[in-house]
Specification:
With 157 residues, the chain is α+β, with helices and mostly antiparallel strands. The chain has a single domain (2-149), classed as NADH Oxidase (3-Layer(aba) Sandwich). Helices cover 34% and strands 25% of the residues. It has helices at residues 2-5, 56-62, 67-71, 82-89, 93-114, 126-133, and strands at residues 22-27, 36-41, 46-52, 74-80, 118-121, 141-149.
């Protein structure tokens, strides 16, 4: 799902089929993958483990205390070095980063639907997301968050 969703978008502002946003994941319950936080290395189509552990509570907290990111199999955060984007694209840089995340996130919605999985976009605490994924995500801002997968039984309140 990650590889197909991140094969880029054809635009006048990016190199053909490139994307701006980096993907950071909190994996709660994915077959064949340990729970923890990850960074998606697009060039190698692989996940880099940042930290092992059960971060279900943190995922819910980062998503404004909502049950959806707490209960999801995986939560994906689209993050970008916004200062670099603004330096490169000027005032329209923020909109470009948002469009990039939204289209890539839309591809994930479609893929989730094709696999009969749930998907929902959510709001989040910007600085807390950066702090959680740092030092790897230092100087990055969150553009979008999506919770994917089958719902876990919620004990979250």
């Amino acid at each position: 799902m990650l590889k197909r969703s991140t094969n880029g978008i054809d635009t006048d502002f990016l190199s053909k089929y490139d994307i701006l946003n980096d993907l950071y994941l909190i994996v709660n319950n994915v077959d064949g993958l340990r729970s923890g936080s990850y960074y998606y290395v697009r060039q190698r189509d692989s996940l880099e483990l940042l930290r092992r552990g059960d971060f279900r509570e943190i995922s819910g907290n980062l998503g404004l205390g909502q049950d959806l990111p707490h209960d999801a199999s995986v939560t994906i955060f689209f993050m970008v070095n916004l200062q670099k984007v603004l330096d490169n694209f000027g005032n329209r840089g923020y909109r470009i980063a948002q469009i990039d995340a939204a289209i890539t996130g839309g591809k994930m919605y479609l893929a989730a639907y094709a696999f009969n999985l749930g998907a929902t976009g959510l709001t989040f605490y910007d600085d807390m997301v950066t702090d959680f994924f740092s030092p790897h995500a230092k100087n990055k801002d969150t553009m979008f968050m999506i919770a994917l997968g089958k719902k876990a039984k919620s004990s979250h309140s």
